[in-house]
Specification:
Layout lengths: L2 H22 L8 H11 L6 H12 L4 H26 L3 E2 L2 E2 L1 H4 L2 H19 L6 H24 L8 H26 L4 H28 L2 H4 L5 H4 L5 H9 L1 H11 L4 H14 L2 H17 L7 H15 L4
Antiparallel strand pairs: 1-2
Helix pairs in contact: 1-3, 2-6, 3-4, 3-8, 3-16, 4-6, 4-7, 4-8, 7-8, 8-9, 9-15, 12-13, 12-15, 15-16
């Protein structure tokens, strides 16, 4: 790595440590333990903090107030945690960030209430922003609702073999990409940028988010539990539509459905190996990677609103997304 890359890597590590520290010091009551113990468990459970880091990088480039940046990053991280807690219940995932999910460690009722609590705390923190407060809150809540829409599509699409590639892209735009778009947009808002600039910043995040979700789909099959932080194959087993299943079906629906019917009967690890073999032989994985590269390229094309002195950091951030699977 060159010196600039080393410095950027050190900054990312420093930001992640700062965000983890801020999460650990959120002032939460100790009682009732039924509510606050699982919330603390979730917030201290780890994660790459890429969304909060993106808030900081964009905000720093645009001269945002430091305290506003910290609160915006925390609020986004909490909103993300809220969605994961509830998603894990709906998807019956038992591992998240390498530890038991709340509904697995406690029960579903505890997880529902804890998710609700995390969401309310995110609202309290986003309201602490001093610059363009109402605009920031509006963008934050719009994103929260759109993420719910994305989850609704995700559930409605399960085991639906008529879902097209455009349907899939609509789902991931709402379920994953919009929240990452909010991270960049929010930094524009709290640094008092124009509406046009904020729209372009959101577009940068949206394209990066699309690439991010496609990679999550790939990691579901080609990753490992340590990298992914959750159970492998769980989305596929539940019948979710991913970039791999949609592309496989569009390539040859009859052959794919026949193969998938047999693969699903196998033990999980064997099934994943057989699935990899099918996707490799049919070049489905290569097609999926091309979409990752396409959307990362589109994201980079939106960076002209970032001052030149900071633009390279955002480009390096997009490399983090690319290197998640390559």
């Amino acid at each position: 790595m060159n010196q600039d890359t080393d410095l950027f890597s050190d900054q990312i590590k420093s930001l992640r440590a700062e965000i983890d520290g801020a999460l650990s010091t959120i002032d939460l009551p100790s009682r009732p333990e039924y509510l606050y113990t699982p919330i603390r468990y979730t917030l201290l459970g780890g994660g790459k903090r890429l969304r909060a880091i993106l808030v900081h990088l964009v905000g720093e480039a645009l001269g945002a107030d430091r305290e506003d940046l910290i609160n915006a990053g925390l609020a986004v991280e909490l909103l993300h945690s809220f969605t994961l807690v509830h998603d894990d219940i709906m998807d019956q995932d038992n591992i998240r960030h390498g530890q038991d999910t709340i509904h697995e460690k406690w029960d579903e009722s505890t997880a529902i209430l804890s998710g609700d609590g995390i969401y309310v705390v995110s609202q309290l923190i986003i309201s602490k922003i001093k610059t363009k407060t109402l605009l920031a809150i509006k963008a934050f809540n719009k994103a929260a609702l759109i993420v719910c829409e994305g989850q609704a599509y995700d559930k409605a699409f399960e085991n639906n073999y008529d879902i097209s590639l455009s349907d899939y892209f609509l789902m991931i735009e709402k379920k994953t990409a919009w929240l990452i778009g909010l991270c960049a947009e929010l930094s524009g808002i709290i640094s008092d940028q124009t509406e046009e600039t904020n729209t372009q910043l959101r577009s940068f995040g949206l394209n990066l988010g699309r690439a991010f979700q496609i990679q999550d789909d790939i990691l579901e099959v080609y990753g490992d539990v340590e990298t992914v932080g959750k159970s492998l194959g769980s989305d596929l087993i539940s019948g979710k539509q991913t970039i791999l299943t949609v592309l496989a079906r569009e390539d040859n629906q009859e052959e794919w459905l026949s193969s998938w019917k047999n693969i699903k009967k196998m033990e999980t690890q064997t099934a994943i190996l057989r699935l990899r073999d099918y996707l490799n032989r049919k070049n489905i994985i290569d097609k999926a990677y091309k979409y990752v590269e396409e959307y990362v390229g589109k994201a980079r094309g939106k960076l002209d609103v970032i001052p030149l002195s900071h633009r390279d950091k955002l480009k390096q951030f997009t490399n983090i997304i690319l290197k998640r699977v390559k």
